[in-house]
Amino acid sequence: MTLRLSDEQTDALRRRAEREGRSMQQVVLSAVDEYLARHSDDEEVHRLGVEVVRRWKPVLDRLAE
Known about the structure:
Layout: H1 7-20, H2 24-64
Helix pairs in contact: 1-2
């Protein structure tokens, strides 16, 4: 995989990595992991919400009347 960054992004990433005492690759991998974990949680919450609505639809319909 090739990741193409703008010059500004590369400079900012380099500075961040230096401040944290990590390589640029380590910083990027950490960011990707955080992104994937956050979106995985979003998908799980959505799945659970759909299940709850399906399960309680009769009650919700009665309450809406």
